[in-house]
Amino acid sequence: MDVLEELRSFRERDLPYSRVLSSMCTIPHELAVKAHQLFIGTNLGDPGIFPGTVELEKKLIAMLGDLLHNKSCAGYICSGGTEANIQGIRAARNVMRKREPNIVIPKTAHFSFEKICDILCVEVRRVSVDEDYKVDLAEVERLIDEKTVAIVGIAGTTELGQIDPILELSKLAEEREIPLHIDAAFGGLVIPFMEDPYPFDFANEGVTSITLDPHKMGMATIPAGGILFKDEIFLKALEVETPYLTSKMQFTLTGTRPGTGVASAYAVLKSLGFEGMREIVRRCLRNTRMLVEEMAQLGFEPVIEPVMNVVAFKTDKAEEFKQELYRRKWVISTIREPRAIRFVVMPHVTEEVIKNFIAEFRKVI
Ligand code: 0PR
User: Is the beta carbon of 24 within 6 A of some atom in ligand 1?
Assistant: First the structure.
């Protein structure tokens, strides 16, 4: 067998996105694919060889900074939300220079924070959430002490798409002079395009870093994550010397680093513009409402009224439904607390996909 044929046969075993209602990734935009191909041989790990790609990354970071109310923010495009969160916390830890450092994060934080606590040797203090699944501010305040090097707020939780009270977290962070990292890996390219956007970003004085992933709602090719800092100081705190490269210092976590995510994210944002993104987000939110209505007719109630295009429905049979649907080649997910089935209504989850899913789900229940 020809090797390409062999590859194709493996690839054909993957599930098509038209049956995936659990993913925060989606089919990349067609321009993203073209941009990716153009930059396929690039390596931002050795910037002197790729000055054009370096320049493009600066333009993309400025574009994202513009969106996040800080045109002069510093940052870079990385492998995804996990790396962005690691680097956000690592920078805060290095700037704060405390012995036995700790961070205060909501219980609803993504599992990447488990890795952070292991890699960075920071103690992770987890805060409960209220009945709306937003972090409990009084408890955040109680858990902060003189060794706290970062507070974390989430703008679009993985499980429910909820937004923490970032205005209040920001005030607290300012008062106590502690960096505030916002995990907007998912929400960062949803919230700014909503009707009445919640101010989760650098518009708040206390916010010092933001995770925002173009390979989620930005329809860029994988990998394309983003870490943005309010100030250069945080990037400087990540630098190591690179004795034999075209550059002298490196602040990234990985060495060799593709320019494909930069190019694909730039292509999508530049060609669609913020107006085009608004239209994409509007459609996803409309389809989320449609899913809620369809599920209501089947007797299912959402855990919270969806804030963005993530929604979970309460059911004791969550695990059984997920398994039976997977057997029928449909992918949904479940959440930890309360028992519920979860959906992410990405751009590929169209009205037609929802109708097909509901028809299948009817048979399952
Ligand atoms: N922060 C938040 C709020 C996230 O939701 C995620 C990922 C991350 C950080 C980590 O991002 P990376 O996975 O890019 O490192 N959220 C999804 C999740 O873990 C990612 C995902 C994407 C899962 C596609 C499944 C899938 O098919 O559920």
Answer: yes
A 10 A CB-CB count for 216 gives 27
Which of 224, 246, 269 is the C-terminal boundary of a domain?
269
114 shares a domain with 141? yes
For residue 100, give the CATH number of its domain.
3.40.640.10
pLDDT tens track for 337-364: 999 999 999 999 999 999 999 999 999 9
Give the pLDDT confidence of 163-176 residue by residue, as tens digits. Answer: 999 999 999 999 99
Same domain, 204 and 56: yes
Say yes or no: CB of residue 23 within 6 Å of ligand 1.
Answer: yes
Which domain, by its residues, includes 145?
30-269
What's the CA-to-centroid distance between 81 and ligand 1, angstroms? 7
On whether the CB atoms of residues 115 and 257 are closer than 8 A, the answer is: no
Of 208, 242, 269, the domain-final residue: 269
CB atoms within 10 A of CB 174: 14
State the Cα angle at 96 between 214 and 89, rounded to 5°. 25
Tell me how far apart the alpha carbons of residues 78 and 90 are, in angstroms, rounded to a whole number. Answer: 15
In this prediction the pTM is 0.98
* Residue 57 shares a structural domain with residue 81: yes
